[in-house]
Write a structure and sequence with these properties.
Largest sheet of chain A: 2 strands, antiparallel
Order of helices and strands of chain A: EEHHHHHHHHHHH
Oligomer: homodimer
Largest interface: A-B, 59 and 59 residues
CATH architecture of the largest domain in chain A: Orthogonal Bundle
Structural class of chain A: mainly alpha
Strand order of the largest sheet of chain A: 1-2
Helix content of chain A: 55-70%
Number of domains of chain A: 3
Chain lengths: ~250, ~250
DNA sequence: ACCTGAACACCGTTCAAGT
DNA sequence: ACCTGAACACCGTTCAAGT
């Protein structure tokens, strides 16, 4: 915006903050190490910092000090880059070991593990929606969840339908957290947006929307993320428990 | 794809199928009737037919027999077009009248009404995620849902957190329905994609993924959409019932 | 009030070519 | 094996101008 017509070369040395917190420059030292994993990590870091719409083939190349077309050696197209990002997220899931706890508590553990993996990357989470069954880690996740659900007496059909929805619902949980999970905009602009949302709420006719106004503080922002996630995770587990077809032994 | 470099003029007479099923040509008869509502309806129809990524300022203008820049008279930018599409969806919600049924049954009715409104437009549903509280119809929806939830004894905070999640979860429900809710691709290509997904499943090691394989038929497609929606709607309502803080009278 | 024309800064992607 | 250069068909958007 500020500097139109500036050629790519200027930003060659831009650092690429990886999502684990480390910083990966490739201005001069690390030249020549351009791999799938590095690109994916950089793409995730970029999405975390500026939103998914900032993840662009050209921008990624610039961040790496490389020509846009170099990306096409490592990825057939942009969609497979997105696949890689999603796969990287679900690969980070730390699946709990099966125990002798009740099935619903174990299921809770699995969903919580999935949540923990995607929570740091709300802008990327949505990509996993239709990509869970395409990666080994996602399959392991689904396998373990389905195992528990079927052990509770659900038919194959119900287990499939409820199980896939539960995983998608966890993704939604992080993508739709009231505070606004997309851009993670900086302090100044973020405060401004919050002010505007609060003002819009305050302008509502109180006689018509008493309940919305009472809930407003938790609708415009998310003052306690942990509480939000804990509550709705319990909601999901209680939900599938509530439609359980047969009583367990 | 087939005819590159063809100027816009050629497709002037393209019909624009509105989402209610009517066809709105504007080749010669209806010239001059270009309004917000017509554009939004056309955009929704286009998204239904070819997916959200086909909804483009330029494509919309072409469909309307008009210059791309004409859109900017009616919408300040593309985002406000998207706002309009989302608002149109939630405006179609037919909210049930309050009754003397238990709160959870009434809440089920509200979520079902919301589901019915967005189900015909899976490609557009996701747009409503962060736009419910910005339109009168969305506010009415939230108001009624929050009213019921608070009447069940939930605190303002819990009602806000669970309520907003429930509405988002309904959106997810239509966006993540196993059959693939995005493009609605035509019979030929659709069958091919189903074949590929089934083949990928069949190629999995059966000893490692017994549960995924048992559930496979309902994971790759959605043979019974009604059952899918009914089951998971019940799951959501049972879920919030399951975390109810105090017993009702 | 409503629309056009020309232009700008972006996209993803292909294809031939370099090392 | 890995990357570059030039080109193509798209995007959203601005600005001045037409009627």
């Amino acid at each position: 915006m500020d500097a139109p017509n500036v050629p790519d070369v200027i930003h060659l040395a831009s650092p690429c903050t990886s999502y684990s917190g480390r910083v990966t420059k490739r201005s001069e030292g690390a030249r020549g190490r351009l791999s799938r994993d590095v690109i994916v990590a950089c793409a995730i870091a970029l999405a975390d910092a500026e939103g998914l719409e900032a993840v662009t083939i050209r921008r990624l190349a610039q961040e790496q000090g490389v020509t846009p077309m170099a990306m096409y050696w490592h990825f057939s197209d942009k969609d497979s880059l997105l696949d890689g990002m999603a796969e990287s997220l679900v690969a980070a899931v730390k699946l709990p070991e099966p125990t002798d706890q009740p099935w619903d508590e174990q299921l809770h553990g699995i969903l919580a593990a999935f949540l923990d993996a995607i929570r740091p990357h709300p802008a990327v989470a949505g990509l996993a929606l239709r990509r869970i069954l395409t990666s080994p880690s996602g399959l392991a996740l689904a396998e373990q969840a389905l195992d528990l659900i079927r052990s509770a007496g659900f038919s194959d059909e119900w287990a499939a339908q409820a199980g896939s929805f539960l995983l998608c619902a966890v993704i939604t949980l992080v993508g739709s957290q009231p505070g606004g999970a997309g851009h993670v905009l900086e302090g100044e602009a973020r405060d401004q947006m919050l002010r505007e949302k609060r003002a819009a709420m305050a302008a509502l006719p109180p006689a018509r929307y008493p309940n919305v106004l009472a809930a407003a503080p938790w609708l415009v922002a998310c003052p306690d993320e942990d509480a939000y996630y804990a509550l709705n995770l319990r909601l999901l587990v209680q939900g599938i428990k509530g439609i359980q077809p047969v009583a367990p032994a």
